[in-house]
Amino acid sequence: MKLPALPDRMPNPRRMGTIAMVVLAGGLALFGVKESVRTWQMRRALDTVDRELTTLRARQSELSRTVDRLRNDPLYVEQIAREQMGMVREGETVLKFPSQAPPAR
What we know:
Layout: H1 13-72, H2 74-85
């Protein structure tokens, strides 16, 4: 007994090419969106780090000036000692006034 011939079901090469191109384009689009989001997130993180770096550099400069004054400016050291530590020179009289309580309503 002879088997019936199967119909020629070979896909059309043009149609297969079109399907392959659509699948490839979809994959590239998905990859592109994913990488675009990642790039955007990295730029935001970089901007944040740049702002922090600028702030820290300004703070470092301020601290360097303070260190220089503490090493080279005796009047500044005296001012700090008086204001922050409550120190006085020998023979000075210190007057302390009681703080005023806020008026009762």
